[in-house]
Amino acid sequence: MAKAKLKRVSREREFLAAADLAHTIWREHYAGIISSDQIEYMLEHFQSVAAIREADARGCEYYLVRVLGVNVGYVAIEPNNPQGKMFLSKIYLLKEYRGKGYARDVVNEVREMARALRLKSIRLTVAKNNTSSVAAYERLGFTNTEDICKEIGGGFVMDDHVMELSV
Ligand SMILES: CC(C)(COP(=O)(O)OP(=O)(O)OC[C@H]1O[C@@H](n2cnc3c(N)ncnc32)[C@H](O)[C@@H]1OP(=O)(O)O)[C@@H](O)C(=O)NCCC(=O)NCCS
Asked: In testing the pocket of ligand 1, which one of 30, 65, 92 has its CB within 8 Å of the most ligand atoms?
């Protein structure tokens, strides 16, 4: 079976592709998890082309997840956030490509990147009621280390688990 591979977002069309994937995936997946107002707020503030470019400029690396040349999702990582850890800031796959082992491929690749940088773990945050993703992360070996509730502006909050995986 074909493996998922990461391709760093660097060209204009790749920034557009990542933002486009975000809009499709978030509107489909987060309906029922967070309000539609919050989805639109987060897309505008964190997943627009401008927001992705700004994040890239401050060291948040975006990658397209590709399978046989097709963009099936996107990922963002921040090395040393916090110091010694790789923050897996985003991992989102289109619905039709879930449950096929692609997140396992992605996590393995991110793990290799973390090892090359001598980082000790991969850290992520996931909404507590995003239960299918929490279950997938648990299967991938992540464990819940902390719960946090953070304000994200616009009167919205994210009520998250923090999960970590040793590399
Ligand atoms: C979370 C997500 C990235 C996982 O990706 P995926 O490609 O579906 O995961 P995989 O197919 O690689 O599965 C990894 C493991 O989790 C398990 N798994 C996947 N989905 C699961 C689910 N809904 N319930 C229970 N286990 C699940 C798989 O069986 C596999 O374990 P195994 O190899 O021991 O059988 C993907 O489902 C997704 O994009 N979800 C929507 C967006 C989202 O919420 N992203 C996370 C934001 S924090």
From this structure: 92
